[in-house]
Amino acid sequence: MFIQQLLGRYEIIEVRNMSIQAALEDLHKDVKKRSLPDLLDRDFVNVSGCESEVTVMQWNVLAQALSGGDDNFVLCPPEALSWENRQLRILEEIYRISPSILCMQEVDCFSFLEKKLKPLGYDGRWVQKPHSPCMEMEGNMGPDGCALFYLKDKLQMMDTQHVNLKENGKATNQTALVCKLKVKDNGHMLYVAVVHLKAKSGFENLRHKQGKYLLDYLMKEARSEPIIVCGDFNASPKEPVYQDFTNSDLELRSVYKTALSEKTEPKYTTWKIRAGTDGKNTESCKTIDYIWIRGNLKLTAILSIPEDASIGPDRLPSYKYPSDHFALACKLVFA
What is the reported pTM? Predict the structure, then answer.
């Protein structure tokens, strides 16, 4: 039943070597063999009646090397965190959203994604973190970083820049991927930035400076062109870096805040339970992931965030969702 609902809900994109329908059907056979439950249910919620031109997806996919350990996701069954299961669920989420532009963080599986997405008509770019914590984990799959994939039948890559985010002129361990794309149907140019700011509390000032560095870079590079910024900011809307993006001269707009009736960000984009240093579990439920747009881009739809009850008491990740972050997605049209 799941596969029929899924194919009815999402537009089927005909691609170079394989359609998204065929890829999803093949994938679902493996999901069924492993007796995995349905992914958490999600829908695109219309914001306007315009027909969408570009679908953008933002996702911190959770590096496989960072999914284990004694202090990580203590209520998640180990089998749900196995790569054999997680790879299926990751692809399932991507396939059912079918983005024109896919922006990701904590990607330590770029070669795998490239292999799976290339037959569907995608091309990709990746920039690794200078000193990836994944490399400290036994049995890791390599360093993690930021990635961008795009549908070649819709978009043309014009330029790619790897931007090391700086603090007071000094390079930090965080990077951004900035790509210039051209929409083939109408020739519109578009800058897309994928970023992952410094994690953990106590680094608010560093995130603030990293964000300002990216804003300054985009101001000089993109000039008057439309911009999309996708990222795990590791910062709530109360942090200075969020305020900088809200009040920037670039006139960026957060798509979820724009779309939601309360004119606020979602209640959460990540929800996880970890083991605390005192032996007690620590629950973290917050909004730290965003999609920002500027210029003549009109928002037509956003992807819903699952309701509390459907997530379950053990939170994320789980058999029903492979990351501790929910993917965000929106549909855009050039006004």
Answer: 0.92
